Each structure stands twice: as C-alpha cells, then as structure tokens.
Prior knowledge:
The protein is an alpha/beta fold. Helix content is about 30%, strand content about 25%. α4 crosses α5 and α14 runs parallel beside α15 (about 440-455). The site of adenosine-5'-diphosphate has 15 residues, from β2 and α1.
Amino acid sequence: MENILEMRSIQKSFGHVKALSNVSMTVRRGEIHAVCGENGAGKSTLMKILSGVYPHGSYQGEVHYDGSVRAFASIQDSEAAGIIIIHQELALVPMLSITENLFLGGEKARYGVIDWESSHKAAQSVLRKVGLTESPDTAIGSLGIGKQQLVEIAKALSKDVRLLILDEPTASLNEKDSDTLLRLLLELKERGVTSIIISHKLNEISRVADAITVIRDGATVDAMDCHTQTVGEDRIIQAMVGREMADRYPKRTPNIGEPIFEVRDWHVDHPTQKNRTVIKGVNLVARRGEIVGIAGLMGSGRTELAMSLFGEAYGKKKKGVVRIKGREVDVSTVRKAIDCGMAYVTEDRKGNGLLLDEDIQKNISLANLAGVSRHGVLDEHQEFSVAADFLKKLRVRCQGVNHIVGNLSGGNQQKVVISKWLFSNPDVLILDEPTRGIDVGAKYEIYSIINQAVDAGKCVVMISSEMPELLGMCDRVYVMNEGRFVGELDAEEATQEKIMRAIMRNGEI
Ligand SMILES: Nc1ncnc2c1ncn2[C@@H]1O[C@H](COP(=O)(O)OP(=O)(O)O)[C@@H](O)[C@H]1O
Ligand SMILES: [Mg+2]
C-alpha cells in the first residue's frame, strides 16, 4: 500500500513552549490510523498543522501529502486537497438547521443566490450516508452530541473528503453513539477514505485501527502496524506514559471513620415534566476517609442525583434530608452547599467548572476567595502561592500559574478544576466522571489526588461509567437504576458482573 501522508520531523513552538519537538508519522492510503498520547502530548497541535490551522511557516519540518510536499496556508488550502478535520470542540451553529450547517460558508449558490431546494436535497443525501434520518430542517441544537458528530462527518463527506481527521470524536459520546461512529469509519474505509483518529479509548483503537502512532512530550515514540504485529494495550500504554504501569490505581489503606455525608429518602421531581419523579427515595452514607462509588448506566439518574444535592441545581419539589457531620443542612443554593462543606466536580469542565479565558491562578481561588483575602481584600501574592502549590502537587503541565486555562489540555484542565474544589476545603467531594476523556497517566495522578483527599479526612462520592475505575478506587459501590439505588456492594465483594446483574435485575444481586 502506498503512503498518502508523511509528516517528517515536525516542530512547533508557542512562545517559549515547545509543543512539538520531533514528530514524524506515516499514513498509508485507505487505512484507519490512530494517534495516541497523553493529554498535552501534542496530538491536536500536529493535526492543526496538517490541516492548515497553523499555516506553513509557523512550524518546521515537512508535510508530504499525495506525492508532493505541501505548504498549506489555511484550512481552505488543506480542504481543497481533500483533508478535512473535525476538531475536539464541535464547530456547528446550534440555532441553524442541519442544511444551513452543512453548507455554511460554501452555500450552494446559483446566480449568486443560495439555492435552498438543491441544498435541501444534497443535505438529505449526505445525511443518508452517515445513517441519519432526521429532516435537514432540524435545528442542530436539538440533536444529541452523537448525532451532531455525525452531521460534522456528513459535512466532511459533502466536501469530497480524502483524508478525514477526527480529534477525540468519541470522548463525550455514549457507547451506542461511539459504536455508530466507529462503524461509519469502517464503512468510509471501504469506500477508500483514509482517516486519522485521536482517541484515549484503547478498546476502540484495537477495534478499528490499522496502524498506531504514539506521541509523548511532542515526539514520536512508537509506530505500530496492527496487521503484522500483535499490539496489546500494555504496549500502547507503556509508550504513552514512558514507563511500565503495573497498576492503574494507586494503593491506599482505607481508614474509615464516622458518617460525614448522609442523604435520607431523597426524592426529586423532573424540572418540567409533570408527574415524573426522577430520583425515588435514595439513601446514601459516606464516611470520613471513604470513597463511595455510584455505578449505573447512562440515564440512570446519577448526575441528576448529584446536581439535585448540590444547590438544587436540578429538579423540583425535593423531599428528603441531607446531613453533614450529623447536622441537618440546607443545600438549597450552590452558595449554601459550598458553605456547608460540599464540592461538586462535574464532567463538563467547560460548562460548569472553569473560566476558560482566565488564568490558572484565578480559577483555583474562585470557590474560596476568602482563603486568599485579608480583611476582605484579595491578596494576590497569597493567591499566586496557593495556585503554584497546587500546580506542583498535581503535576499540572503548563507554563505557570498565569497560563490561560482554555489553552491547557483536557487532563490538565481537570486537574485545575479539582484543585479549585480542593482549595475550598470541602468535607464532601462529589466527583462526576472525574477522568472522562483523560489519558492513563493523568488519570493515575487524579486518582492519587482523590486518595490524598480521603486520607486527609474528607469523604468522596464518585460517579463513573467506567466500572474498573469504580472497582479500583472505591471502598463501597452503590448501584443506581431508573432513579433508585438497587444495590450496594463492598469493595471486596464487588465485581463488574455483580454490578451489571444488580442493574439488569433491578436489585437482585
Ligand atoms: N494555543 C496555544 N498556546 C500555548 N500553548 C499551547 C497552545 N496549544 C497547545 N499548547 C500547548 O502545547 C502542548 C500540546 O498541546 P495539544 O496539542 O493540545 O496536546 P494534545 O492534543 O495531545 O492533548 C501542551 O503543552 C499545550 O499546553
Ligand atoms: Mg487534543
């Protein structure tokens, strides 16, 4: 098979940060090529060079594509050559229809007027190619993330794509949507489209990839051909983190004390639909020094439970009692919940946790300004040293406390969110999918932080869709299904099978 792409000795700096020091990669025509690496390794930067987002002249090294050296000056340039990139953050406009989004910028014009009739027809035909049956008039904002992702791919197909680049496309998709997307990739391969996919999900990579390039700290460290070599997850992980990972979960000797967080008979009604109860009589206890997990399928009510407890950010007509350290507390606003000693770290770093345009220092002090103020006046030196301290402890990869959070990689953003909430010194830390979309190395560091928090006498409630993570970290696991707790398992007895059985049988273990 001939090569469609060769990137040779690519280097790229941002100011004095060297994002890429020496990356090379070779992609054969018609294959699915996976790029792996820890957060911050340089994967997105490399793809932005390939697609002209960072134009020729802003990097060193050579891009050979389709038989010649290319010097793309813009995205339009690379698109004209058939290279289409779908970025980590989707770029669709929510208020506009599918048709409008598909042909935005390149509107099908006849005599200078957009021809809506032919646009509509063209939209229908590309939607069919990606398996969507929605009307092209549907507003993008009303589709789930999985379908929006498919619209992005449809958009790529409407532009005669030859090399499709997907930057962490499945990071925020559920299993079913991820599966649809991967099958579509395999179908496109049948039709001769080459693709490059960036993903942290090793099981997905093993399923679709023909070849894998691993990048670490801005340099290529391994290139594997999945057809001529046996490529196990261990080899990929070792290349990514640069060391053998005997254990994915740091060891902890639990030292569990009295109950700190108690929820009794908690009921929550749906915020808009009448007569629909979303949380149905949940009882939960978390003790000093304990990590308690909540397992369950998508839509089982785990996030709704956490949000309804944290400042009633979800739902209506709540019934039930919350006690912290034995005292009944009022958690009816986020402010009150924080003041009672609660903290809630969500999976949606952008939507909830962080101010992306602000620097690390500002973000960390946000939930506890009193902690960096004297007589009500902000002490910037204090704020600086608190932030610097967290960066060191949590090994955040950045230029310093003044690094703008929006420019950090996902894993490092997550460490900043966790720092922010740890600095608020909570008794109860609720973590909702704390490691989603994060590489194995950063995961390990986040697990270590969680262990330190419980060792310091806090209690942690951890919601996760990754069962091995719950089993590896928790002292006890509640199983949730359809708004109820349907099972409770101690760490020693818990297994994935038992959790699944509790879900399927709605309670019988
Ligand atoms: N626009 C930017 N300004 C400054 N630093 C950046 C910018 N984009 C990326 N970086 C830095 O370059 C490195 C690689 O980032 P990135 O390519 O996003 O990694 P990955 O996609 O592998 O997670 C990181 O250290 C990141 O902080
Ligand atoms: Mg990236």
